[in-house]
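Dear all,

This email documents one entry for the complex benchmark we are building for the journal club exercise. For each entry we list the sequence lines for every component of the assembly. Then comes the predicted three-dimensional structure of the complex as a token string, followed by one or two observations. Please use this as the template for your own entries, and keep the labels exactly as they appear.
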Amino acid sequence: MGWVCRNWLATAWSFTLKPFAPKLRWFFLFGLIFLFGTNIAAADTHRAQRAFVYGINAAVETGYTGAFAPPSVTTIYLLAGTTNILSPRITDIYFWPITNEYKASWELTNEPVIGQLEILRNDRLLQTPASRPYTLQSRSRGTATETRLIIGDEAIAAHTKFIGLQNAYGEAAHAYYDAQQKWLATVSDINKQKLSGNAVIVPPQPRQPEPIPIYSNGLSSGFPVNLIAGTYRIQLRAPDGTIVNDSARALEVFEARRTAIGYEVLPETRWTTPDQVLDPGDAIVGSPNSQLYLIPHLVTEYPALPYSLLQSPQQQSPDGAEWRWILGAPLTDVELLVTSESSPIKREQLNGYKVEQQSGAQLGYSIKPFVFDSERPGLAPDISGFSVSLKQPGDAFRIAVIARDSTTSPESTRLVRVSYPPRLFLLLIPTLVPIILGVIVIHRRRTTARLPRKLLI
Amino acid sequence: MLSVNFKIPAKTTRQVADGLQQRKRTIQILAFQEVTDAFRGWALYLSASIAATISAFYVFNATSFVANSGLLILQRPFLIPLSITATVTLLYVITRATLAIARPREQGVLRVLFFAPVDSIGLLGAHLFSGTAIYTLLMVISVPLVYFQSLITNLPFPAVVLLSLIVSPLFATLAVSIGLFISSTASSSRSAILLIGTILLFALLIPTGYNALLNVPQSSRFYDATYVLRKLLRLARVLLDWVSPFSLLIGTMDDCVRHGWADFTQKVLAGLLGSFIWVGFAVIGLQRRGVLP
């Protein structure tokens, strides 16, 4: 190894520095160090590069998802029939090898790009949406979050209202803090008076202000895009008529293949790890004497790859299934129909349930109907769903959801079965049938083949 | 100058009709004989029994899980047991077709057979029909066994899963066509079996290898050692999906259950086209290779 290094150094010396005069050699050497050194330093400090990107607020089944498309992303994916926002921006991007993707330094540079977004189909100009102010506001509803996209003047008004709520909450929180300090001081005094034997009344503790029920991503501007399924091209035309560099991208708008009503299935014994029955062809199989809680959801089946790239445009082509069911919002204004051959149709109402931990050291819990407590009005049920009892092995029925207003709803029927205990011996009995059949046929053939023809008649 | 016209008189419509009638009768007789032979052998009954045994273990696994866990979301109930049953049946039919020409040729029976009014199209047609009929009859025996397993466990057996099998004889025709092509071109029954075995092994290894590679963890966070191999296997799997009767059969069953009628139609057309192509190749192969060992 040493010999190789020595050889390499000698060769480098003879080819690079030897031809120069002795004084010039040092000058040349410093020159080389300067050149390479500055390059190394440049690589470290200029990792980020200024780039044109599209900020994307894309509609998904459960609300909106935020992403951005750096120049390396040549195709943007959106859902058909939904309003999405594309925001052309100039920002600093840098490659992050750990996740193998570009990241944006929005806090350093976030400049909107002035221009007109053009949507083309088959190289013909289809739409030129106008840039408009928008805001995304989310509101918690039970365990789910409902996000709303607000555009135009309504967005400005909603944002102003949100800022007002934020300021009011800030003032209320400040006032609460002051009141709390005063109350603590009062309680301290009372304690002292108590110790000296005086009868005192403790004043009520100040109440915390209610948190703001809305979250907002602030007011921004972008191009609302709502298209039918198809392949498009987008580009941003600058005020001088030229196409902004890196703004031309493909736009793939796709739609759901099927919509149905699916269920989150919570067995009483493990309610914290629910299962999901999404495909209308799937069935629920349970054990006898068990209780299930079903939460109905709207479910939608999308092509897996576009849906994945919609949420994460820089994802490397993922492998896997072709189609994917997405669990949507829970349904509230519905009833459950339980149909079986042995009993009349039963209607179940959507009820609230409360989970109670077992007291003592033993692990476990029980699920009971939720009772509204007027003293704690903010308390919500742990489960809002239908209760289904699985009684004895062999039970079989269908469940389906109908809307209370009797409007037609998507496919919601699922088979529910209570299985018999596993018996391998019984299951293997049918495997003997073909063998027995074979023995009969072959034995008969051999017997008849040995007999003389006249005996056969 | 004397001119002699050596024109061969064209066949009359009646002669053509008689020829077709004769071929139809040949196909009927040979096909019936093939089906009868199949039912007089152990292989058919063993195939049905093996399929039912695999299905039994699958169902036992599902019911055991329910007994332990209390809940099972059964995805597309009985699609997998029926896919296994159909696959085992196809394996039996394709193996039989692979020996259909090569073995009698090796034994000298094919030469004798061709002294009768039998031609290559008639013979291959007979094997094609008999193969499809054997598949259908074997499924008629096997499917009730799987249904019985659903009854004794109370697992649902949706009608749509049964409907998904309606077009499956088409893929049996495709499998038989491939088997007949190999059989008509192979030098001996041993080489025919070796060839079909190798093809089936590759057909099995491609999806298995691809799935195995999907589960191989990356050697480092920055370097994916199996990336190119995985992409190649994925490409091979996509090609296989459109060529293999096994993939097409399972694919159409899946499409039928999830109502993917566009994909279903494409696969059925691919099966039809594949059958025509392979039968055509088999006819050419038999005509070129001849009836002598």
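Observations: Chain B has a mean pLDDT of 88. The longest helix of chain B spans residues 120-153.
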